[in-house]
Amino acid sequence: MNDWKPYRRYLLAALAAVLLLGAWLTFYAVRETEFVLVTRFGKPVATVTEPGLHAKWFFERARYFDRRLRLYNPRPSEFLTRDKKNLLAECYAVWRIEDPKRFVETVGDPLAAEMRLHDIIWSALAASIGTHELEAIVAPAAAAVEVQDLLDQVTAFTDRQALERYGLRVIDVRIKRLNLPEQNKQSVYARMRAERERIARQYRAEGEEQALKIRAEADREREEILSAAYREAEKLKGEGDAEATRIYSQAYSRNPQLLKLLRTLESYKKIFADNTTAILSSDSELLKILVEGERAAR
Amino acid sequence: MKLLEPAVSTHRARPEGRLRRWSSRRGVALAAVAAWLATGVYIVGADQQAVVTRFGKVVEPRAMPGIHYSLPWPVDRVTKLKVRQLQRLIIGGEVGDAALGRSDPLASQFLTGDQNLIHMRVAVQYSVGVPADYLFRAQDTARLVGAAVEAELAHQVAARDVDAVLTTDKAAIQEQVRAAAQRLLDAYGIGVVLAGVNIESVAPPAEAADAFREVAGARADAARIVNEAEGYAGDVVPRARGQAHEMLEAAQAYKLRRINQAMGEAARFAEITREYDRAGAVHSHRLYVEAMEQILPKIRKLIVDKRGELDLTIIRKGAAAAPVER
């Protein structure tokens, strides 16, 4: 009874150590960023997707897989459109491990997975782009819908394939850059220059057109204003003349003889200037008295 | 006795000492446990939010600024994030960079809807929206944000022609790219809020830059020509209006003058007529004489007797004499 007492603390320590080791081997934490695949002597027996503390048999092993989204961004590659034009497209794929068991059985590591993904995405994209003309993919306004649909189809296809075959989920496949192949660039630049020159000429011509229009309009407006004013002015003058004539005739019709006398005298005043020499007959009305004496006045 | 005493004392002292040792050990242990528990207190700064995980599982997705408690290590783990801090990314590059070979020339090249190539440099700013998602959903959040924005940018640029991208549509592109990229990132669920997408520079490629400048020049020329024409119109039309006004006023004046003159003369004639009617012949004689009085002093006069012969030489003499007479 008393024999084991001195060893009791060692026994307790050993027991604690065994318990600790047991706990260490049994319990494992799954983080938010991970999946755990529990394997029994190498054979997968369970997939744990729920984060937190979990337990397994001490002889089982927990393998951790990153479940976070990954970005796969391959080099740009050339695609041929339906109208046999080359298009350089750089795409990216957002993916993650969905089924660790399938993943570890088929590809094992992320790099290999990306290579497999590349094959699926490339063939899907090539097939999709091959059914569209270049103008349908790169075009004002039209591009919006077409490319979106095209990429949605590629994404759905890739996702289905990758999940089925490799246990990968493809969240999105997207084209992040469109470009033209290097060997086409020079002709593109030449075309751009030609286009710019055309536009420059067009701008100048349009400016000229507008300027001419403005000038012609101004001239027309001036003529319009002046002629209208002339018309109005002549009318006013005519009214004045008519009114004056009416007034004169009304006044003069009361005594035409007097008018004759007055007008004649008036015109004399104007006709005879300083250098006029008048030869007056002595028996004229004015000079009769001068010559013949006061008898003539009677 | 002496033999017994130590025995007794030791016997008695032993439990006492043990007790004392026990209590002091317990004190140390308690203090250690208390200290361990105290490490669970954490403070979230004013510009921060924190996420608490227990054995890897999120138990507090968003701890706001202030003092908080969590279970100490290794049970809980606290991760603090500066949520307000804007992070910046650059997409594309400068034309200059490409020319100097500092960066991949393709990095800044975008294809427009009318198949022109342009160089763009875009700055993206984003911040943390949902801390737990931001921390745990993506391996490399920054690259994912960059890729999403770049994809939307390429998409928007491919949907417009080069003139729109270079001039009028910049703001629209920025806003549409931001909104669309935000939708994408929301679909990825990586807890990021895009604060802004900013086109820092956009320029035609060096190979065609002069042609683009030429277009700008042409546009300026056209504007100048139109301006000149407008200047001409602005000069001609008001001048014509002025002239028209002048003509009308002159005509009005003429009309009034004519009428007033006529009325004046008519009135004068009416007065004279009244007198004439009263005095008749006398009056007309008087008018005649008065007129002669006005006329004759101003002119040279020769009075001849109608019965005598007219010697025309007197006209000459009269002419010679006239200046002296006056």
Describe the structure.
The complex is a heterodimer of chains A (298) and B (326). Chain A is an alpha+beta fold. Chain A has 8 helices and 10 strands. Chain A has helices spanning 8-26, 100-106, 110-130, 134-137, 143-166, 182-252, 256-271, 288-292, and strands at residues 27-30, 34-40, 43-48, 52-55, 60-66, 70-72, 77-80, 86-97, 168-179, 277-281. In chain A, a hairpin with a 5-residue loop joins strand 7 (77-80) and strand 8. The longest helix of chain A has 71 residues, at 182-252. In chain A, 25% of the residues are buried. Chain B has 326 residues and is an alpha+beta fold. Mean pLDDT of chain B is 82; it is low at 1-13 and 318-326. The termini of chain B are far apart. In chain B, the strands form 3 sheets. In chain B, strands 6, 7, 8 and 9 form a 4-stranded antiparallel sheet that branches. Chain B has a 3-stranded antiparallel sheet with strand order 3-2-5, with no helix packed on it. Chain B has a two-stranded antiparallel ribbon with strand order 1-4. Chains A and B meet through helix 5, strand 9, helix 6, helix 7 and strand 10 of A and strand 7, helix 3, helix 4, helix 6 and helix 7 of B.
Question: What tags apply to this protein structure?
Answer:
heterodimer, A: 298 residues, alpha+beta, four-stranded antiparallel beta sheet, 8 helices, rod-shaped, B: 326 residues, 9 helices, 21% strand, disordered N terminus, disordered C terminus
Oligomeric state of the chains in view? heterodimer
Query: Helix/strand/pairing class of chain A, anyone?
Result: alpha+beta
The global form of chain B is rod-shaped
Determine the mean pLDDT of chain B. 82
Which band does the percent of strand residues of chain A land in?
A: 15-25%
> What is the β-strand count of chain A?
10
How far apart lie the N and C ends of chain A? 200 Å
**Which two chains form the greatest contact, residue counts included?**
A-B, 117 and 115 residues
Can you give the helix content of chain B as a percent range? 55-70%
Helix and strand run of chain B:
HEEEEEEHEEHHHHEHHEH
> What characterizes the major β-sheet of chain B?
4 strands, antiparallel
Q: Label the structural class of chain B.
A: alpha+beta
Task: Count all strands of chain B and give the number.
Answer: 10
Low-confidence parts of chain B, pLDDT < 50 over ≥5 residues? 1-13, 318-326
